[in-house]
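Sanity check

After download, print the first record. It should look like this:
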Amino acid sequence: MIRAMAVRALVLAAALAATLTPVRGLGEDTKQLPGKARKELPAKATKEVPSELLALFRKKQMPKHSPILMRIFKEEAELEVWKQDATGRFQPLKTYPVCRWSGDIGPKLREGDRQAPEGFYTVTPELMNPNSNYYLAINTGFPNSFDKANNRDGSLLMIHGDCSSSGCYAMTDGQISEIYSLARDSLAGRPSFQVQIYPFRLTAANLARHRTHPQLDFWKMLKVGNDHFEATHLEPKVDVCDRRYVFDVQPPRNPPGPFALDPVGKCPAFVVNPKIARSAQEKQRADEAEYAQLLKDNVSAAPIYSGLDGGMHEVFRERFPGTVIPLAKVMPYASYIPQLPPIPWVDNDGSLASKLFGTAF
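Expected structure tokens:
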């Protein structure tokens, strides 16, 4: 009976959603002002880094304007800020619980699919939005060259405030104030910083748990860059060729011709920076052995979801009840995954689905 109710709910949700116009990520309403006006920033965008973080800088020997690197994990609903210390390596500075992200684990594929992106992104000063209606916003830079090479589209996917998301990573206003100030200071005299976005922490256990998911190969590709960073605490150099990510690559000793990486062209002969490769390969071998043992032990596979209405960190669930409503659940051995149209927001308190079905699901 419960399964029948769920199927009826899916059909109704799909029918209603199909009649509505898909929406993009929030935070796109107001862009940076050009020219002289750009200097006239609102006070919220010029706030000093909080004293608690300044104390952490001193403790961890991190210069105030040293580079940062962000990592976002959907399933855990966490955003990490790492900062370069006096040795030139990145160390964890602070982890922020994510207040709201929309869609399901898996990459963003098209405009209006409500998916928040996954991959490796570069934030430049032009992508910092001090005038967002969602307090402050940082554009992730989606679509990047990998997304474009794979015909993925969408626009204005943000990290912003207001705890409301349709394809973005939404924080509280207090959180984005800190994150924005860290990003702003790191960009002083520097062209960009890197944002790494993952479906979950790419451990052997999590990959084994999600081994039946159709995006497993994509996540294993992301794991290579993740491993380079975790093994060295150095920002991975990210390139794209043959429609796939490659990390820390360089020309071989005697290249047969000019070394050029074309996102849609065949990858040229390359080698991985040997100093990085050695450390990363040790980690990868250990993870592969653990993964193989988990499969041998037949560890339970996670259900595959379709049509999820996003997620949030558990610390926010009491504060924002009823905003994460799963619309469908497909067990890992199901023969197909139903495809649902986009389901847009109607307000900041919940989704269309939650208003239709209440708390039944």
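If your output differs, re-run the checksum step. Summary of this record's structure: The helical segments are 2-18, 51-60, 145-149, 173-186, 204-209, 216-232, 274-296, 352-357.
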